[in-house]
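Changelog excerpt

This revision adds worked examples to the README so contributors can see how folded entries look when concatenated. The first example is reproduced verbatim below.
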Amino acid sequence: MSGSNPQEDIHYNRRLRGTPTVKFRNRASLAVLAASILVGVAFHFTPGAQRYRKRLLEGEFNNSEETQMKGDMIFERLREDFQKSKKKEEMDGFKGY
């Protein structure tokens, strides 16, 4: 489809190219994009964000050994439950829901 020939394009009359609606849509999207970039740059250079980045690089938010062990225990329990359900499905001959 070439898009410029009404005989080839069944949606020819629905095109908005060059209309004020398209110009407004483009300007609105550019305004949103520019505002989000400005907010991102402003947040990046605020003192609070710089303190947070410093604390993050120092490892203050890393998991402690206790938290890591609890997470490992939870995942091990989930793995065991999954294996039990898999064996039960194989014994019953039932797969899926």
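The second example, added in the same revision:
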Amino acid sequence: MKEKKKVGIIGAGVSGLLACKYVLSRGHDAIVFESQSTVGGVWTKTVRTTKLQTFKSFYQFSDFPWPSSVTDDFPNARQVLDYIQSYACHFSLIQHIKFNSKVRSMDYEGSSDDESQTWTVWSDECKWKIVVEDTVNLSVEAYRVDFVILCVGRFSGLPNIPEFPPNKGPDAFDGEVIHSMDYAAMDDEKAARIVRGKKVTVVGFLKSAVDIAMECSTANGIENPCTLIYRNPHWNLPDYFPWGVHLALLYLNRFAELCVHKPGEGLFLSFLATALSPVRWAVSKFIESDIKHRHQLKKFGMVPAHSFLQDINSCQLALMPDGFYDGVEKGSIILKKSSSFSFCKDGVLIAGEERPLETDLVILATGFKGDQKLKDIFASPKFQEHIVGSSDRVVPLYRQCVHPRIPQLAVIGFAESLSNLYTSELMCRWLVELLDGAFKLVSIREMGEDILRWDQFMKQYARGSYRRSCIGALHVWHNDQLCSDMGWNPRRKNGFLAELFEPYGPMDYASK
């Protein structure tokens, strides 16, 4: 008879809910700690115009389809949150969640840090102590669990604020400086009020930045144009149909993955990836040509120096809001490329420009410190060092899920993909099979070697953005490894051609 485990899950976003559901389905006890008062993670606080970035058919629970009332292929944030909350209620997960419970630290109760360095296999002789603060009554309580699943996400909680020279940071500015996280946390009325009638400057060029810039442009028009400062442009998509071809047919199937070198591939697959490199190049150029044509990127000086392939391999794709470049054309959005910026009393000092940019409000859409948030949760300095690894490598997680030298702990939802819900669900299913003893992890040495192979892949294709740990353009290969570990058949399609060319999605993994 298998041992019943008590599992602590940190975070009640999509990954946390999936972890809770699958842990409970195997008869284990689950307790979820959520710092907010509701489930939904990043979807609880979004920019008003935010929509789902992938087709809903790729962003759905395999056993809980979208309701028929949601007809849009890209539901808005409210619809996504309703869907996630409905999932939690349908599977009776709410009763297992402690809301307003912020985890202050986690401590491993087992071998010493020094002893852990001598392990050759993943240890199962330990427990974790989780110290949790109730943010309502400010009480603190410690919980002991057999296993921990971290589902803290990397796009919330700890904003990334750029560093500035002395006396040239936000304190030098007479106006207001906020992070996109603060803007997203405002209700619609307050968000509209804070930008209305003001000269707003937005820093960044990924999804939050362009959405916020578009909202400011709509609110203020050319009378008070929104200035968007960016370091490098990206291949932000007008839609998912370059020249009428669905992007999933070009990147989310096995044939597309045959065109790239994969971690752990054999000689034949390596030869095939090299032989198909012209196809890989041609597909990237095909998509780039559509984006350049439809967004008139040359006209606005916005053609990226890197390839589309690099953006998709670093998960830096975003759907451009409708009318964005129309706003640039008419002057309600002003684009300024700069390697750096700083503040002065009257506004923003942009590198290469003599006069400061006069502005009333600066919104920093500069991302989050996901690595630091992951690190801060551990009490042990050694585990803090282990979990994030070195700055010149990817975050060292085997199967993008477990660390070789941090026992009885998994991280779900940290590695990015083109549909994080879909990726997290299969990882949770892999994890509960591991908990049940259906398979054993390979040795610590072998896990480390596999992590290095993924590190090499991400550096080759994502270049400078490899730390994002993106598996977006290699999700079938990653899923194959999870399936093989669990004893499932990785081939999920009917027929050779379907297996090669049909896109893979969450419903392909609805059953074993």
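Reviewer comment on example two: The chain is about 35% helix and 15% strand. The two ends are 22 Å apart (CA to CA).
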